[in-house]
Amino acid sequence: MAEAYIVEAARTAGGRRGGRLAGWHPADMAGEVLNAIIDRSGLDPAAVEDVIMGCVSQGGEQSFQVGRNAVLASKLPESVPAVTIDRQCGSSQQAIQFAAQAVMSGTQDVVIAAGVESMTRVPMGSTGMLFHQAGLGRAKSPRQHERYPDIEFSQFMGAEMMAKKHGFSKEELDAYSVRSHQRAAAATEQGAFRDEIVPLPVQTSEGEVLHDRDEGIRADATLESISSVKLLKEGGVITAANASQICDGASAVLVVSEHALKEHGLKPLARVHNLTVTAGDPVIMLEEPLFATDKALRRAGMTIDEIDLYEVNEAFAPVPLAWLKHTGADPEKLNVNGGAIALGHPLGASGTKLMATLVHALHKRGLRYGLQTMCEGGGIANVTIVERV
């Protein structure tokens, strides 16, 4: 089977809800990242055969096929098609996997996987609320009610269930969250994100500036400050401080075949080594990355110790902590530049965002293998293993 290579991987710096990126239309924001992929690779824009765009809240300014709208807001020609996909938090990680599958099958040679989410302009859950308010019923069908009676599918409740099942106290979750902020702050100061971030001009009270630093990082975070945030449920352990931050952002990854490398004179960053997606319990929901990782490693013929860096999305602190406990992975290799608790989780953009961070971190540290996974609504998880080249 043909190989798939990652040539470029880029992202915007994260913007807080109502923050610096609030003025950017999501199609324009995604278009800027597509432009950066083209500029940095030196690829002829007309050579792109498809754009696969992850987006979760496909309403408002993210409706009417935001992937295609992003192409039309970029320097890509009208001849470049696009599609918008939703695998919840894993939408753009799935975009990478679809792009790689297209290349590995020989169907296409040059595909951009991307993602976008303006959680300021299209709030999380807003599409479902509008649906219900219009009197059109609920997303959960009668047959789902029959199969899962009196159960509401909730990522928040899944996080509480994970913490209880795997035995994590609030103090452990908060301590992990402090570490996420500390690592993200250190990475920023050391320039670890410089090669992956696409600076965007934004208007501030002081005039136009370039937004090139993740806005949610709290460099002064302490266990005391994190622990003081109120619980989201009485008697629970989850707070806004040990969960991912609402975030605006866009990201993209250029995936090509070996033929395209030679034809266009491209230099790869990484080779796609394994693609896995699994599904499990939709109630606890967030636990599936544990089992998806097991399957991915079996299929790749690898052990967890052979992986040099891990990116496990910090949707909630119990997720990476349970993943570490289950896999026996080295915590020093996990989210070495911080994670979504500090950097933000722009839903549909997080998959390609994490991949941008992962491949650049492998290069900066001179390491070989990286593994990325994240929990997704409905009890699904993607795992992607890449090899630095």
From TrEMBL:
Signal peptide: none annotated. GO terms for molecular function: acetyl-CoA C-acetyltransferase activity. InterPro entries: Thiolase, Thiolase-like, Thiolase_C, Thiolase_CS, Thiolase_N. Residues 266-388 form the Thiolase C-terminal domain. It holds the Pfam family Thiolase_C. The keyword Acyltransferase applies. Residues 5-258 form the Thiolase N-terminal domain. It is an enzyme of class 2 (transferase). Keywords: Acyltransferase, Transferase. CDD domains: thiolase. The keyword Acyltransferase applies. The active site is at C89 (acyl-thioester intermediate), H345 (proton acceptor), C375 (proton acceptor). Belongs to the thiolase-like superfamily. Thiolase family. This is Acetyl-CoA C-acyltransferase. It comes from Sphingomonas lenta. The lineage of its organism: Bacteria, Pseudomonadati, Pseudomonadota, Alphaproteobacteria, Sphingomonadales.
